[in-house]
Amino acid sequence: MDATIVYDEKDVTKSTVMATIDVAGVDTGEAARDNILKTDSFFDVARYTTATFTSASVEKTASGLKIAGNLTIKGITKPAVLDVDGPTAPVTGMDKKQHVGFSASTTIHRADFGIGSSFPAAVLGDDVKVNIELDVARQ
Hints:
The chain is mainly β. 5% of the residues lie in helices and 48% in strands.
């Protein structure tokens, strides 16, 4: 994943996120499954090599942040909300930069993006939980 995160500690509503995920490089640890995920039934990497998320708003919650934005997969854009824990306390990395961590999650409906449409819901559920763990270097 490649991301640009602007985090304003004093006013989180001024924060922004723009992320690009290389779906063509999907690696689940099982080559056969990876090959299926790359087909037009799933991510269609021959036509769409990336998925993107762009924030529209950021708000502070009791447990972290709520980031609302637009998720684009296979050329289809739908609203998505990330529930975020973090940032963690900063630590100095081996690169001598300050690093903070974030954990984010959301649930998407695969049918909204034309993912796995040839599989019945009884075989492949429509709700897909997405978990993201980020280590971010402060610039």
